[in-house]
Amino acid sequence: MNKMNNHRIFTCVAVLLFVIAAASCKKMDDYKKYIEDKPVINYTGKVDSVRVFSGKNRVLIKGLLVSDPKIKEARIYWDGRRDSLVVPISRTSGVDTLKAAIANLEDRVYNFEIVTYDDLGNKSVKVYAFGRSYGENYQLSLTNRPIATNSLNTRTNTFDVTFGNVDRTLGIFATELKYIDLSGQEQVKRIKIDENALSLSNVKVGELMSYRSLYLPDTLCLDTFYTDYTHFNPALKFELKNGTFPFAREAWDGSRWGNPADWTVNAATRNAGNNTYGGYELRSGNGALSLEGGWGLPAVVNGKIYQSIELPEGNYKITVEKYEKGAAGVVNLVVSEGTEIPDEANLATQAIAYSSFAAGTLSKEMNFTITKGGTYLIGFLGNMPNTGSYFKVLGNIRLETR
């Protein structure tokens, strides 16, 4: 009886296993229906390390081809695949670089899709990258870095400028200053955005200067953007040589009389120390420009103290901040051309401007106009009798435009 029961159980188990196996085979056969005669997809190698470099109405796409020597071309799509570019590829045994330049782009952000293909038409998985093309809209947003102060010293031909602040978020990194040097050649000097001051030497007076600012909108940008040049006439600083009180001397007698440094004095002015010294007096411990006759000194006839200076066309004012003059003698402040200021008798015909000093302790101003840039003379002309006459400059001598 037990043997019969065991046989029945064994038979039931065997039938159940058969049914399960048959069902599994049927499901496998059903699956084969769907994959039968279907091609197996073979993907080509994709582009790695893709970067999009921005530019002026263009971009440059770069990537690495590190696998799959069968790759023959890359296709780049943008604007929802409405635009595309095909880039042929010649693979080597090593790592190759994909470079694709896309031009004539509008000023905006672009999303790019990159797919590689082999000769059989097998393609890679899609690689996405985005980048920016900069154009007119960006250009219109740029501003030139402002100049805060500037000064061109007409005696030393040195130009000093300081720049103000500007919005850095748009990518400004430098400013270029253009000028003409003393040889007539155009020069360009660049100052970085982190610098505020610039000093130039050898700058020609009377020439227009200009500057512009340079921008890189991002660190991957291929192109530099420039603002338009801003043109300007530099603010002129006229500095007479040895024009500040107390005045320096070139030579002296060790006591009182001497010759002023950087000023030309003629023989008529040198009436002290056996006609060796003149034009300078040590007065109360300070050096003064001087014309004097009498008190043991011979008369001064057309005595001259002057120097040359380069001046551009323009209107000017010269100021003697302080002087002392006695009642005797005639002294004129003179501006002229030539190699020497004219004698008193020729002032009306040969001087550009002249004006006499009144007696007393005063200051003096004189206006004049230069119609053509060049070298001019500025100085003092005196006729001082030996009966006791004097003229002393005891303050700064300033020259400025008006």
UniProtKB/TrEMBL annotation:
InterPro entries membership: DUF5013 (IPR032181)
Transmembrane segments: none
Keyword rRNA processing: no
Descriptive protein name: DUF5013 domain-containing protein
Signal peptide from the UniProt entry: 1-23
Pfam assignment, any one: DUF5013
UniProt keyword list: Signal
PROSITE patterns xref list: PROKAR_LIPOPROTEIN
All residue ranges annotated as the DUF5013 domain in the record: 241-372
Lineage: Bacteria, Pseudomonadati, Bacteroidota, Sphingobacteriia, Sphingobacteriales
Database matches in Gene3D superfamilies: Galactose-binding domain-like
